[in-house]
Amino acid sequence: MNTRQAKPQLLSRRDLFQQISAGVGSAALLSLFNEDVFGAGDTLPSVPNHKPRARSVIHLFMNGGPSQMDLLDPKPELDRHHGEDYFERIAGEVEFPDAAGSLMRSPFKFAQHGECGMWVSELMPHLATQVDKIAQIRSLQTTNLTHEPALYKIHSGSEFTGRPSLGAWVSYGLGTENRNLPAYVVLDDPLGLPVNGVDNWKAGYLPPVHQGTRFRATGSPVLNLKPEFSEPDAVRKVERELIAKLDRIHRRDRPARPRLDARIASYELAARMQLAASDALDLNQETAETQRRYGIDQPVTESYGRRCLIARRLVERGVRFVQLFINSQIWDNHSNIGTALKDACDRTDKPTAALLDDLDQRGLLDETLVAWGGEMGRLPIAQLTGDKDPKKAGRDHNRNAINTWFAGGGIAGGFVHGATDDLGFSAVENKVSVPDWHATILHLLGLHHDELFIERNGLKERLTGVSPARVISEILA
Amino acid sequence: MFQKLHIPVIVWMVTANFATLPGVAGGDDASSSPDVFFEDAVASTVKSRCVSCHNARKQEGGVDLSTPAGIVAGGDAGVIVDRERFGESVLLERVVSGEMPPEGEPPLSANQILRFRRWIESGAKFRKPPRQKEISQHDVIPILLLRCTACHGTRRREGGLDLRTRESILKGGKSGPAVVPGNPDESLLLQRIHKEEMPPRRKLVSVSVKPMTASELKTVEVWIQNELPIAKHALADEANQRVKVTDEERGFWSFQPPRAVEVPSHAVTSSNPIDAFVASKLAERGLELVPKPERRTLMRRVGFALHGLPPSPESVDAFVADSSADSFKRLVDQLLGSPRYGERWARHWLDAAGYADSEGAQNEDRIRPHIWRYRDYVIRAFNVDKPYDQFLMEQIAGDELADYSDEDAITPEVYDNLVATGFLRTTPDRTFANITNFVPDRLEVIADEIQVFSSAVLGLTLQCARCHDHKFDPLSQRDYYSLTAIFKDAYDEHDWLKSQGPRTLPHVTTAERTAWKNEVQTIDKKIAALQKQVDTESDADKQAAFKKQIAELNSQKPPEPRIRALWSRGEPSPAYLLRRGNYLTPGELVAPNIPDALAPAGFTYEPLPPKSKQSGTGRRSALARWLTRPDHPLTARVIVNRIWKHHFGRGIVATVDNFGTTGERPSHPELLDWLATEFVRNGWSIKWLHRQILSSATWQQSSLIHHTDDSEDSAVSDDDRTSLLYGSPMRRMEAEVVRDSLLSLSGQLDLTPFGKPDSVTERPDGLVTSVRSKAGWRRSIYVLQRRTKIPTLLENFDSPQMGPNCLQRSESIVAPQALHLLNNGMVHELAGHFAARVVGRVGSDSQKQITEIWRLALSRHPTSEELREGSDSLTRLANHWRQVEGETDASAARKSLASFCHAIMNSAAFLYID
């Protein structure tokens, strides 16, 4: 059987060294170590379970729960029943019962776009030009209507903290293609962390090397990447040489200790990474035209545009999994949906569309899977503010219908999968679970969700857990 | 109004709503194919191929296929034949996948499998349908517990109504009996639910309750219609003839008590039995114990092992000079007698307990204000060598052991007993807010605590049995829920204490409480005096100044000291097995009990009468009493093995958290049993165990094994070497040891013990560090363990994420470690302090400085080669500062020595322990 027997990391690393430390020259040895110390981990030159359709993933995470019936899933019936009472029917599914109002139509206009004729709200004019590239899923459901558990669920498959994130699993399964950069890079917002903070990209019980590495869009991209004190280069050079000399003496007196070789290699990588990471993040290498397309020249899109462009540069360099976050929860529109949702779209729509277009033009889209979506959806009823002013209404959380899309590597563009009921409260056709969503991403990368596991406590732990998961084959190209 | 809309879409939507709730059928149409009956299609296959394991007596997986009733009843995992969603029928799934019959049995033929499919797809019909299982109070009570008793139960009796028992339902509340037996329509209970008045929709979140589902309502209705039938047996088990655990399963090595073993009469120079066990095994491979290393190496090793700090050069010199026969023994005694020992070893236990200073699970990651007392308790327990059996008793049932009824007479012992229960309050917990305090949220907390308990204390993967019988070990789902029932008087998902505030007790020692009261009183007096002045003062400015002083004084009032504890709440709800671990599908009632496979012959679990006046149930005391029996198969083995692992890098059982059938077998089973039995015989003393291990020639072997081509050693693989205990493993400092040692070297370690944790700060770029006290930085164990803000240095060196606990840390070698030690500002600053300290100790002679740096950081002298290289680098550094940067001699010397010290802090020789 084709099982990816994932042993505890140290053991197999030792085995590996055991085999090679005898005769292989030190250059080859070092190159192996390099991959080992930053990303490839146990699964060095990894063999996927089947032929991959995508080489990299860019996950555009929309924290807060974008409103499906205001963006990509128009509901004419909601217009017809606007103002009617509905709360009693869904009381158990409402976070703030005291603020629950009646059914509320979308304040935004929809139109059909692209050859496929996909419906897109007026809030996303740029995405509207790219709909032939995307497969929209209208029927994703999650298991909890509160942000934190729903975030843990979408990022790690479990509602609780402590499990490895999707990106960590991918890093664990496939490693990196660039030995100077981590396999899993997180581009968080300089304005602040998303809900659940750094938990979103933890490695849980996988080896810590698979944890997402935060790259900052400005300043030093990685923690401690550059010295936090001033020191002449010559002094630094002497000091590094001294460390290297002492380590070699120490190593020489301790034969058959591959961990010491790995440690020496990790110091060498540290030096190289400084260059590689700085280069990947140097947007001055991009033309003014490219920067403009991503909206970097405009204050409202500057920050997200920068991260989208960096994401492209990272996948170009072989980074396996890039995840983009936005500070706080701009999609959590409990009130003033008319303006708040528009603001969220204004910040993200243009850069997102530019990323798809740019990847496509550079021939990268075929091998890059782009995933867009949040951790939950929203309710068809209004959520009212204290003064019950309908103009300030927003929408409360909803775990029963989430709208999300994929584009790129292995995805059939211009496609809509699943459907919600006539008011948009719940998925009713072709429901997709979070494990299904995960399994689909793994599948496109050439991994089978049942065969990507780590033994822990005598259990095979998997991203998709014990519940059966299904690859959403309908959306595959 | 909604009712006016009589259009199909609405019906569709309501269905959709229910369909999303777990456990409610989605309504796939059964196909319209002709009837296929069990008796014709599959009965003979079932009889010949399934019933030998799935009969009334054996019931593998709780499944009895010998009668139609058994097939319909399903197993521990729930229904196995789902007539509505036939595709999800477990029976079909197992047969189609070839999982059943199990490996080793001939598989079913394609034709046989097809008949199973046809039968189930056509609705799983029987010619002689089994009698419907009668709905009893055991089907109804769990529903009422879930939907009603938050307001009509233990703590609240809205309308005078208590819905917890059949009797109290019949008695009813202020509006009369809740039900009319035989008449659902006239039953108040159902009327209120039907009208959607109950549970009140707008109050759902404030009491963390969801409305009853249609199928639940139907169940209650049928029960009332049938005049509230009572199940014949209180516990389903009583009627069940099932054999729970076979003798063969019970005979598994780790379920049997440790055996008294004879020490092998292997000729070794040491009198320590550990060496006899290890050497005789090595001899089988033609190997011998590796000789001891130099005394300095041994000293460094034992210093880090017991204190996690570099030993002082003076203590190393004294040990090297001490040629008496018992010098090592005295060294160990001295190290074990120091408070630094408890600070080092408590950390290992806190990993196992999943200790953290914050709630986690929610974005705000709220601080847990009082849990640090538990951390201090563990440190003190290690320092005074609290016997391990007592240590466990206190942590599992401290509240039941202590009489804490008089708040003003709390002794340190009573305080310790209460604080110790913090062990069961460590896991991530978001139940402090209403919206995240629903029953499933609570069940997650309970599940995590059970996992902490079973992995840390029992070394078993009991959590696997939450949703189904354990796949490999003889641990059933019943065992799991019986164990949770033991904790139910404190962890009751239907009577929940929110995390934070309500989880604390005021019972600190009388001395501490008095001191606190006095402090508050002193401030109150000052405030009262100022208040008088405010009242008599007419000048507005002066009055404002007094008021400001009052506000200032108020802010100085120390907060009330409290304990985060777990205690018996008196009236636990009945415990029901949750099929598939799902709270919406409760199964049979279970009684508190220990896992059957571990029960000694003739053992009956019975709650102990509590010692205190509090209304404890004595359930946890009985659990603790059983755990600490000298013949317990796991308790002593598990802890002995873990301590062994900390000393050797690998346990005698390598899977320290899994002593079950999928765990590894012990590499030295007799040694493990000898250690376990002697540990108990020596009063469960952990310090005894340290002495025994550290004084062995096994532990004292050198880590250097020189391979030569013709040496027989080369036949020994690295892995073998660890499992055979051939030579000592090389160790990398753990996260806390790295940080504490850097601080210690630079003279910046503040040794103030105990108390509130030191806070941490996060820079805009995400780097987390602890805040400096006046005297420096305290040991890492006293730094705030906020789940989302682990100090970056610790995190880089594999300080674990508690999910929910950690029994085996990983040891990674990654670039961020190098980057941190090379580039981080604080490490650089510490290097400067280290250099200044060296100058303070030996003056300005560079040879002496280098030697002193080696003595401080590496507990030895530099070799001539190291001295030469060091000297050369130091000269080059100083020359650069002087000649190129134009520094004065003094400044150049200072700066170059700081760089030199920085290099040592980065060296493998410092971070690795031989």
Describe this structure as you would to a colleague.
The complex is a heterodimer of chains A (477) and B (914). With 477 residues, chain A is α/β, with parallel strands linked by helices. Chain A folds into 2 domains: 83 residues, no CATH class; 363 residues, Alkaline Phosphatase, subunit A, CATH 3.40.720. In chain A, 32% of the residues lie in helices and 16% in strands. Chain A contains 12 helices and 19 strands. In chain A, strands 1, 5, 6, 7, 8, 9, 13, 14 and 17 form a 9-stranded mixed β-sheet that branches. In chain A, strand 3 and strand 4 form a beta hairpin. In chain A, helix 2 crosses helix 8 and helix 10 packs parallel to helix 11. The radius of gyration of chain A is 24 Å and the shape is globular. The N terminus of chain A is likely disordered. Chain B is an all-alpha fold and 914 residues long. Among the domains of chain B are: 95 residues, no CATH class; 96 residues, no CATH class; 181 residues, no CATH class; 51 residues; 91 residues, no CATH class. In chain B, the strands form 5 sheets. Chain B has a two-stranded antiparallel sheet. In chain B, a hairpin with a 7-residue loop joins strand 3 and strand 4. Chains A and B meet through helix 1, helix 5, strand 7, helix 7 and helix 8 of A and helix 1, helix 21, helix 32, helix 35 and helix 36 of B.
Strand content of chain B: under 5%
| Coarse shape of chain B | globular
- CATH arch. level architecture of the largest domain in chain A: 3-Layer(aba) Sandwich
Biggest pleated sheet of chain A: 9 strands, mixed
Q: How would you sum up the global shape of chain A?
A: globular
The average pLDDT score of chain A comes to: 86
Helix content of chain B: 40-55%
How many β-strand runs of chain B?
Answer: 10
**SS-derived structural category of chain A:** alpha/beta
- How much helicity do the residues of chain A have? 25-40%
For the largest beta-sheet of chain B, the strand count, sense and barrel status come to: 2 strands, antiparallel
Contiguous low-pLDDT stretches of chain B (5 residues minimum) are 1-32, 708-713
Strand order of the largest sheet of chain B: 1-2
How many angstroms separate the termini of chain A?
Answer: 28 Å
- Domain count of chain A, please report it: 2
CA gyration radius of chain A, whole angstroms:
24 Å
* Low-pLDDT ranges of chain A: 1-46
| Biggest interface, chains and residue tallies | A-B, 105 and 107 residues
User: What's the CATH class of the largest domain in chain A, please?
Assistant: Alpha Beta
Q: What is the fold named in CATH at topology level of the largest domain in chain A?
A: Alkaline Phosphatase, subunit A
